[in-house]
Amino acid sequence: MALIEVVQGDITRQDVDAIVAAANTSLMGGGGVDGAIHRAAGRRLAEAGAAIGPCRPGDAMATPAFDLDPPITHVIHTVGPVWNGGQHGEGEVLASCYRRCLEVADELGVRTIAIPAVSTGVYGFPAQRAARIAVATVRSSPTSVEVIRLIAFDRETYDVLTAVLGE
Ligand code: APR
After folding, report:
1. Which of the four, 3, 7, 55, 157, has the lowest number of CB atoms within 10 Å?
2. 34 catalytic, yes or no?
3. With contact defined as beta carbons under 8 Å apart, do 44 and 35 qualify?
4. Measured in Å, how far apart are the chain's first and last C-alpha atoms?
5. Ligand 1 centre and the CA of 142: distance in Å?
6. What's the pTM?
């Protein structure tokens, strides 16, 4: 059973084996957490992403971490749903992102992973609903990952994730 923890901070500075990028289908970088990871990893990340993309919403694909600081060895790129009112399967796609990230982590032999609040920024997914899906999915997904660190970039997200985890 993995330890699930909530940490507020910058995902590029986490002492974990793999970090998850909330990407777009091209895997060539963008803004938000995706942009932060690409800036820290260097231009080879976009080249590696272009070589394996596109990535469908709900799926996850891994690349090396390039210039990201150790112990990070891999970036797992996942594409979250764009919020469209909640009646178009957005919840299932978001759950799939978390499930697939853990599956890819298992394939890589990753033991510790940091995952941002996928889709809750540019893609507009309500934070509370996304937190419930994130926690429920990682709790119910069989994985060899030992530590799953849910990263909040701001205090509001931290409070929402902490409250949901404590339920
Ligand atoms: N570390 C951790 N979390 C971060 C960081 C960071 N350095 N920067 C931003 N975040 C948080 C945001 O505050 C938000 O809570 O990541 C969460 C996800 O927001 P976005 O990065 O906007 O991702 P998303 O909503 O999934 O939209 C993805 O935005 O940047 C583009 O290429 C990306 O097209 C894709 C879309």
Report:
1. 3
2. yes
3. no
4. 18
5. 26
6. 0.98
